[in-house]
Amino acid sequence: MELLLSKLNSYLPESSISKIRQAYTFASTAHRNQSRLSGEPYIEHPVQTALLLADLKLDVSTVMAGLLHDVMEDCQVPFTTLEAAFGSEVAKLVDGVTKLAKLDSEAIGQSDKTSAHIANPTRAENLQKMLISMAEDVRVVLIKLADRLHNMNTLKYLPEDRQQAIARETLDIYSPLAHRLGMGDIKWKLEDLSFHYINPERYKTISKLLASKRKERELYIATITSLLNDSLNAHEIESDISGRPKHIYSIHQKMNRYASQGKDFSEIYDLFAVRVLVKEVPECYRALGVVHSLWQYIPNQFDDYIANPKENMYQSLHTSVRGQDGTPIEIQIRTFKMHELAEYGVAAHWDYKENGLLDQKLDSKLTWMRQILEWQTNSSGAEEFVETVKSDIFGDQVFVYTPKGEIKELPLGSTPVDFAYRVHTDLGHRSVAAKANGKLVPFNYILQNGDTIEVLTTDLARGPSIDWLNPNLGYTRTASAREKIRQWFRKEKRGIHIERGKELLTKELRKLGIPMDEKEAIKLLKLRDFDELLAKIGSGETNLPEISLQLAAAQEKTSKSDPEAKAQFNILGAGDLVTTLSSCCNPQPEDSIIGCISDEGTILVHSEKCSVLAKNEDPKKIITLRWGTSENLQPVRLEITAWDRVGLLRDITSSISSERVNISSVITNQQGEGKTIIESTVFITGINQLSKLFGNIESIKGIIAVKRKT
């Protein structure tokens, strides 16, 4: 408590400190008979929560509410009592946290709480309440984030099942929320703590990997910072230079991303990282010039977030260079004020003298919070609402323009259909085509930053296409657009829904090569009757690919495994090109391998000792390859019917390759009248990957049909 008061003394007047003391005394008395599972007095948790809020330099009302945030829920203190003792502002903040009707997973460490899991609908309802409370007063969620961070720090005292549930919820909801509010310091702490419980083995592996390089990294960073400091001083640029800490979850994400691209851990450009803080914006660019004069710049590794701030207000210059020995180094350059904003986000904009009100500049950046209130009005349920917020608010954003020059902010990966529904529901329903920068584009075109999007409409009441709800076809990215499309279909008559649903399900199951089994579907999906399922599919209420995958997976479990199924190994170093194992030497995972690039742009994989390859191939076509991780893959035979054209086979193999699926064989049969049938055997990880593969192939120009051949 003395530590808390000393922190508050640095920025709050004495009159505010006395109020904090009163709040502490009240909370301590209320919690006097309670303890946490760790054995410590319960009051420790509210004090730690208040300490985190003080680190953010929040106003006196927020810190008081942090001390008092559990007294309503756990001590049955009435709102009127709090209001009389501390005023309506503090009472409303405490009530804002309390009325979330806490999930069991949030009531951490209290001896009188059970460990029973709360059903998903209940969890969604509570998350919905939290997000709405945040939209009404953002300080409610700042208290919530501080509360969750301390709970994550003490998660070890809970049973393993609750650790997993709480860590997953933190990674799905609270960490993205901290990111959206620009609070980088809290974001990475929540991510690393969550990852520690969700995937402890991976966490330990990366920790050891970083620890093994710590001395080397610290020595190297010291050399870099010394050289850079001398150069900046020579240019009369006053700066604060430091090595940037590595976050384990961030490294995990990058390792996964790099592995999918055939790259190694050593190729992560910001493994060695330096941060430079200067006083003014012009000095950021001068410092950048000094950096590039010292070391070789790595192409395509520069971002100017000062001129183009991120959606969460983050500003900085990012560049990657190669040090004296060629080691990649990422360098971030920003002002001290920008650094404070990067660490504390929305809290850094707080105006303490104006009774805790956000300044106008920040308020204009938080229009997405008001969007939450609109979705609350239009959503059909709590789970749908939470899905919408997670996909449309917590993901990375893209900024596009309307033909009138208005900026629209959408999640990264959004399409013209998402754009149309974001502008107006009726515009989405009447969409027939779209233009990006004056040129016609397909509805599954991925919007790019700076695009000007125009949606062409019809006066006919045609409504949306049911295909827009198929995630494998890529027409919609935002949950809000999908919900509006479902609402349209729900208004149609049940009979029409059933007929449409039957047609769609039959087509989808035939494509996957499995029969329609009504009794099995009713049993598996726990339905009253089969028409209920068909009506939900036809209205768009139920995800068709998801249902068909469940039915297919159930059948796979009851059938014998394919005798051709075997452990397959990823092949690294081939990029996005299709790889095929050579029959002349049949390379095995224990062999060193090389690749030969064919005239068609595919790669034939040989053993390094292959005598056939050594005699016949041009050395310029030879590339180095290596085995990656192993997977149990199943062979599947595809039958693709299409209108023949130049480049058709190349487009199909590229589409299959984009899903990192190996092709075993391809046979082409001309059918006359311009048609061709292509039969291909591919190795897949499961029915889910197969469904996505179908979606990719169906989007290729000239494809008539694609199905699984049994």
Which key terms come to mind for this protein?
single chain; 710 residues; alpha+beta; Beta Polymerase, domain 2; Ubiquitin-like (UB roll); 5 domains; 5-stranded mixed β-sheet; globular
Explain the overall architecture:
- The chain is 48% helix and 18% strand.
- With 710 residues, the protein is an alpha+beta fold.
- It has 5 domains: 2-198, Hypothetical protein af1432, CATH 1.10.3210; 207-345, Beta Polymerase, domain 2 (2-Layer Sandwich); 367-490, Beta-grasp domain (Ubiquitin-like (UB roll)); 494-558, no CATH class; 566-709, Alpha-Beta Plaits (2-Layer Sandwich), CATH 3.30.70.260.
- The strands form 6 sheets. Strands 1-2-5-4-3 form a 5-stranded mixed sheet. Strands 13, 18, 19, 20 and 21 form a 5-stranded antiparallel sheet that branches.
- Helix 12 packs across helix 14 and helix 23 (494-512) crosses helix 25.
- It is globular.
- Residues 101-121, 351-358 and 560-567 have low confidence and may be disordered.
